[in-house]
Amino acid sequence: QKNKMSTLDLNSIIQASQSISMVLELPKLLDKLIRLVVESSGAQKAFLITFDNQIPKVSAHYDSSTDNILTTMSPLETHSMDLCIPIVNLVRRMKTDIILENASQNGDYTKD
């Protein structure tokens, strides 16, 4: 499992660096990177969360059902139907990656 993840991570890093070198415009770069993350992880949705004066904002989000990437600077709360705010807060507090499979169906966050 760990070897597979390491290979996946290395491949993702290589693809990301190639994307960065090919694209200099931020919106196009965000589009390519989010699509790469979704492709690598098998996710149906992806959110890029940045901080503006230490306040988390959704800078971009992707939804596979529409194959659309929207760039915004909206508060997390406006995405509460699609984004589990408690998980975001946990990642922010722990300052580490968290990988959850089917978090909406299994585990501590099924009601969030």
Structure, explained:
Helices cover 42% and strands 22% of the residues. The chain is α+β, with helices and mostly antiparallel strands. It has one domain. A three-stranded antiparallel sheet has the order 1-2-3. It is globular. It starts with a helix and ends in an 18-residue tail after the last helix. The mean pLDDT is 79.
Core attributes:
3 helices; 3 strands; 3-stranded antiparallel β-sheet; alpha+beta; globular; 112 residues
Topology, element by element:
Elements: H1 2-22, H2 26-41, E1 45-52, E2 55-63, E3 68-75, H3 85-94
Antiparallel strand pairs: 1-2, 2-3
Helix pairs in contact: 1-2
In short:
By secondary structure, the chain is an alpha+beta fold. The protein contains three helices and three strands.
Q: Strand percentage, roughly?
A: 15-25%
Name the poorly predicted regions. none
Shape: globular
Alpha-carbon Rg, integer: 15 Å
Q: Main sheet: which strands, in order across?
A: 1-2-3
Subunit arrangement of the protein: single chain
Q: What would you call the structural class?
A: alpha+beta
Structurally, the number of domains stands at 1
**Element pattern in H and E:** HHEEEH
The helix content is 40-55%
What's the number of helices? Answer: 3
Number of strands: 3
**Whole-number average pLDDT?**
79
The span between the termini is: 28 Å
Q: Quick one: biggest sheet?
A: 3 strands, antiparallel
